[in-house]
């Protein structure tokens, strides 16, 4: 005859068996790892993604690895911080679980973001922005990069020449820091600097043409952003005459067009960084932030000053021409 | 030793069923664990082998695809060379059309086809392209390789093709196939280099969808370990991902296990002919084996299930064994309590049945022995009783005859007749056909005759009275029970009385008990004397009284009716003595039946 305690033990044993069965053979307790797709929006500071080829490749690589559905958002008008903030808000409202933001005008964006309540984590790239709202920021040290570029300019030119600094606007992205870095070197050398901002109404073509008028002497051009570099390179590349007066164009950016100009000699030096890595890291950090993993950090990417001969260097080949 | 004793003691406290259950279950558990462990190992190894075979066949398939792809390109190179370049006189005609035709047929795989002279000048290019200004192709590695080993076809590492000025803002990753060719210019021949740029994306497509299970992947390396294709090529280049490709270059074809970056993995390798390239498949070992948490839990579940089923069987078997033992134990318990007539359980297995039968036989034997003992005891009691009774008669007879003699000598014939008559009645009752039991009526009559004889003998020194309820007359009494007590009262209480002695015999029933009391107002006794009467040595015959006293009567009563019955004496010196007899109130007829 089974005593009460014995019967209880059998019942407990049977219960444990059922529990183990549910644990090992059903989805009730241990859930199958679902493949989650994370919607992430990338809001850039430009009105087109022409200068984001390498960055996008990195983003796409990470997106395929981490199952991320990427929305790549461009502005209707470059430098429109208010619109950019609206887009960030819209993307979050539309279900973006994280937003990667390249601030159009960092100060303005920071002002808006600091007062906003963000439902999704924010990853900042491109330029430093004074906000606590960002989970993570990934960028190059623009000031150091500026100094690196300016030092290359100085090193390439034995005598001091007037330097025309082209930029779309110092307010955009990290242009201000970059400019400060450039200026710090030129000021050390007592070189003459003239700043031309497209947003302020300056016309690069006019500036270059005025430079090549007979009797105006020679000059150097330093472009602080990829768009300005490309525009200057296009103008200078149009005629070999410009080459006689413009002693060198130095700029930044890693688009194939810019690299072609470097290869052709129109651009003497380019400040580059690994944009593929930048894009990849942004998405990786965004996914970690969505998964509530700690990503609070400020990542500084390396920047390199390359010249024509460096294009064939295997070290730079995959960085400048990332594989699909 | 102490531990062993403790262990033994521990098991002593457990029932056989528990002990059997524990041993069986522990054995079953050990067997289950062993079987599961070996099965797990076996299964795990088999799964591993199957997966490794599948991985290997997948890698072989991928390697064949790459090999076939390379053969196609090499055939194209051969066709270009032997079909277009070798027999053509480049000074008199162009081979552009032939090259274009072959390019068009292979443009899915090929980006560019170009023919260079030994000095690096481009002779033909399909699609039409011009060399970049100031570019010296003789400095290119693929060019130098071609001319260095002219008999071979050379495959470069993946690279961006720089040499052409395409005017596009695009770049293309290619693997350059170069070979030395013989160029004919009129009557002279010279060397040149044929370049076929294989589209890297078409090579990549060969690996699209080729995976090695969860988190597994396939990559391609050159014979010296240089990565040609890897799904994370860019990340490896920037140092964000690491691959063990240099070690893989040293692996022979087949499956290998390695530990890299803290994780164990299975690496499948297959070499590709001619180029020496290797297709390498990587799969995490824990994905291949049965190491997932669910699999482990399932194994635990299986062990628990086996244990559960075996425990149930064990419980059933142990119950089957021990239940008859328990039943037998109960039977023995009943026997132990004295009920030897209770049936002994004889079920279960043969041994238990046999044991039960033995215990039953033993009980029956005990029962017989006990009956013998009782019988012997009864016989002994009767013998003792008869002995005690036989002690009374000779004394009394002697004394009474002495009185009668004395009366006849004193010419007291009438009294002598009375005494003789009383004596005759006395003996009639004494004899009672040898019975030990008589009615209360006869016992009282007997004592009355005795008192009358003694009253005459002692010349009316005392008076006597007998008081009894009529309803008790037919109850059973022990024969010659009152007479010795009355005799004691006369001889020890009345001897020195001078006519004022008084003896009262009373009999009454109280519930289920029958009482007799013999009271005298004689000398009485001290407590020590009373004690001596019960516990002293058996009295010897004396000239005074029967010599058979209180102890005799008390023992007889206890022998016959049990320990709870008997005599009690209440006596004080000079106050007299009261002897109370306590018997069960049972009808004489019933007592007789019982005695039968």
What does this 3D model show about the protein?
The complex is a heterodimer of chains A (324) and B (596). In chain A, helix 4 (106-115) links the parallel strand 3 and strand 4 (122-125). In chain A, the strands form 2 sheets. A 6-stranded parallel beta sheet of chain A has the order 2-1-3-4-5-11, with helices on both faces. Chain A has 12 helices and 12 strands. The longest helix of chain A is centred in the first third of the chain and has 22 residues, at 4-25. Chain A is α/β, with parallel strands linked by helices and 324 residues long. Chain B is an alpha+beta fold and 596 residues long. In chain B, 51% of the residues lie in helices and 21% in strands. Chain B is built from 16 helices and 20 strands. In chain B, strand 19 (566-572) and strand 20 form a beta hairpin. The radius of gyration of chain B is 66 Å and the shape is rod-shaped. The two termini of chain B are 63 Å apart. The model of chain B is unreliable at 540-547 (pLDDT under 50).
Architecture blueprint of SSEs:
The complex is a heterodimer of chains A (324) and B (596).
Chain A: H1 4-25, E1 38-43, H2 53-66, E2 68-73, H3 81-93, E3 98-101, H4 106-115, E4 122-125, E5 134-140, H5 142-156, E6 163-167, H6 175-189, E7 193-197, H7 204-212, E8 219-223, H8 226-238, H9 240-245, E9 246-252, H10 256-264, E10 269-273, H11 275-290, E11 297-301, E12 303-306, H12 314-320
Parallel strand pairs in A: 1-2, 1-3, 3-4, 4-5, 5-11, 6-7, 6-8, 8-9, 9-10
Antiparallel strand pairs in A: 10-12
Chain B: H1 2-12, H2 16-85, H3 96-106, E1 110-117, E2 122-126, E3 130-131, H4 141-148, E4 153-155, E5 159-160, E6 164-165, E7 173-185, E8 188-199, H5 200-206, E9 217-221, E10 227-229, H6 233-237, H7 245-249, E11 254-260, E12 263-271, E13 278-284, H8 285-288, H9 293-336, H10 350-409, H11 413-431, E14 437-439, H12 440-457, E15 462-468, E16 476-478, H13 482-493, E17 501-510, E18 513-520, H14 527-535, H15 550-561, E19 566-572, E20 576-584, H16 588-595
Parallel strand pairs in B: 15-17
Antiparallel strand pairs in B: 1-2, 1-8, 3-6, 4-7, 5-7, 7-8, 9-10, 9-13, 11-12, 12-13, 14-16, 17-18, 18-20, 19-20
Helix pairs in contact in B: 2-3, 2-9, 9-10, 10-11, 10-12, 10-15, 11-12, 12-13
């Amino acid at each position: 005859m089974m005593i009460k305690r014995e019967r209880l033990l059998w019942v407990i044993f049977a219960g444990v068996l059922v529990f183990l069965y549910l644990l090992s053979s059903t989805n009730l307790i241990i859930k199958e790892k679902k493949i989650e797709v994370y919607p992430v929006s990338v809001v850039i500071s430009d009105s087109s993604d022409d200068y984001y080829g390498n960055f996008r490749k990195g983003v796409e690589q990470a997106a395929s690895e981490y199952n991320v559905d990427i929305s790549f958002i461009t502005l209707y008008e470059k430098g429109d911080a208010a619109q950019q903030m609206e887009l960030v808000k819209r993307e979050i409202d539309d279900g973006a679980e994280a937003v990667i933001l390249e601030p159009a005008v960092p100060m303005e964006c920071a002002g808006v973001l600091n007062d906003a309540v963000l439902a999704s984590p924010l990853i900042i790239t491109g330029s430093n922005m004074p906000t606590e709202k960002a989970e993570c920021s990934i960028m190059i040290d623009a000031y150091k990069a500026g100094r690196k570029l300016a030092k290359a300019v100085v090193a390439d030119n034995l005598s001091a020449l007037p330097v025309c600094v082209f930029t779309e606007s110092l307010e955009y992205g990290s242009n201000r820091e970059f400019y400060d870095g450039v200026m710090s070197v030129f000021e050390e050398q007592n070189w003459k600097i003239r700043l031309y901002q497209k947003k302020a109404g300056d016309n690069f073509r006019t500036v270059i043409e005025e430079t090549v008028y007979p009797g105006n002497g020679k000059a150097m051009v330093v472009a602080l952003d990829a768009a300005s570099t490309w525009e200057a390179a296009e103008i200078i590349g149009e005629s070999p005459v410009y080459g006689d007066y413009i002693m060198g164009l130095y700029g930044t950016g890693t688009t194939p067009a810019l690299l072609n100009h470097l290869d052709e000699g129109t651009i003497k030096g380019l400040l580059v960084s690994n944009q593929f890595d930048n894009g990849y890291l942004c998405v990786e950090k965004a996914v970690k932030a969505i998964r509530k993993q700690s990503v609070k950090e400020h990542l500084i990417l390396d920047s390199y000053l390359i010249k024509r001969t460096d294009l064939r260097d295997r070290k730079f080949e995959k960085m400048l021409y990332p594989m699909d | 030793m102490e531990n062993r004793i403790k262990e033994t003691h521990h098991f002593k406290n457990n029932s056989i069923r528990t002990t059997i259950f524990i041993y069986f279950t522990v054995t079953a558990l050990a067997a289950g664990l062993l079987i599961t462990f070996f099965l797990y190992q076996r299964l795990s190894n088999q799964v591993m082998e199957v997966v490794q075979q599948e991985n290997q066949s997948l890698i072989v398939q991928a390697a064949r695809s790459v090999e076939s792809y390379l053969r196609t390109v090499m055939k194209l190179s051969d066709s270009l060379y032997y079909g277009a370049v070798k027999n053509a006189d480049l000074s008199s005609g162009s081979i552009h059309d032939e090259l274009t035709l072959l390019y068009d047929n292979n443009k899915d795989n090929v980006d560019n086809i170009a023919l260079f002279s030994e000095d690096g000048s481009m002779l033909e290019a399909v699609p039409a392209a011009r060399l970049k200004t100031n570019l010296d192709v003789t400095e290119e590695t693929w060019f130098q390789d071609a001319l260095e080993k002219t008999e071979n076809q050379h495959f470069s590492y993946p690279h961006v093709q720089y040499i052409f000025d395409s005017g596009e803002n695009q770049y293309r990753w290619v693997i350059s196939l170069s070979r030395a060719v013989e160029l004919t210019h009129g009557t002279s021949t010279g060397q040149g280099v044929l370049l076929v740029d294989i589209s890297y994306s078409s090579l990549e497509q060969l690996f699209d969808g080729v995976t090695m299970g969860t988190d597994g992947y396939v990559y391609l390396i050159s014979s010296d370990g240089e990565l040609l294709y890897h799904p994370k090529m860019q990340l490896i280049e920037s140092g964000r991902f690491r691959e063990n490709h240099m070690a893989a270059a040293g692996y022979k074809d087949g499956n290998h296990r390695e530990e890299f970056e803290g994780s164990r993995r299975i690496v499948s390798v297959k070499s590709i002919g001619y180029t020496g390239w290797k297709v390498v498949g990587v799969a995490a070992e824990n994905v291949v084996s049965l190491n997932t948490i669910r699999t482990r839990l399932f194994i635990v579940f299986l062990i628990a299930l086996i244990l559960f089923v075996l425990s149930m069987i064990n419980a059933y078997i142990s119950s089957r064994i021990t239940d008859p033992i328990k039943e037998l134990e109960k039977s023995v318990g009943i026997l132990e309590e004295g009920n030897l007539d209770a049936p002994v359980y004889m079920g279960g297995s043969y041994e238990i049945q046999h044991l039960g039968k033995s215990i039953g036989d033993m009980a029956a034997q005990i029962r017989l022995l006990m009956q013998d003992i009782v019988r012997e005891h009864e016989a002994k009691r009767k013998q003792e009783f008869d002995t005690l009774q036989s002690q009374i008669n000779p004394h009394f007879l002697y004394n009474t005859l002495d009185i009668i003699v004395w009366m006849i000598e004193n010419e007291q014939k009438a009294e002598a007749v009375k005494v003789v008559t009383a004596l005759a009645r006395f003996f009639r009752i004494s004899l009672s056909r040898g019975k030990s039991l008589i009615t209360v009526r006869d016992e009282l009559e007997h004592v009355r005759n005795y008192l009358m004889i003694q009253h005459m003998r002692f010349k009316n020194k005392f008076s006597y009275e007998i008081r009894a309820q009529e309803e008790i007359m037919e109850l059973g009494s022990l024969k010659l029970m009152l007479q010795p007590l009355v005799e004691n009262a006369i001889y020890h209480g009345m001897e020195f009385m001078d006519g004022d002695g008084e003896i009262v015999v009373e009999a009454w029933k109280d519930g289920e008990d029958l009482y007799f009391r013999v009271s005298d107002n004689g000398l009485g006794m001290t407590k020590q004397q009373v004690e001596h009467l019960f516990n002293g040595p058996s009295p010897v015959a004396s000239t005074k009284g029967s010599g058979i006293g209180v102890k005799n009567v008390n023992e007889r009563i206890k022998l016959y009716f049990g320990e709870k019955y008997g005599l009690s004496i209440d006596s004080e010196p000079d106050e007299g003595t009261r002897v109370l007899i306590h018997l069960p109130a049972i009808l004489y007829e019933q007592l007789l039946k019982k005695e039968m």
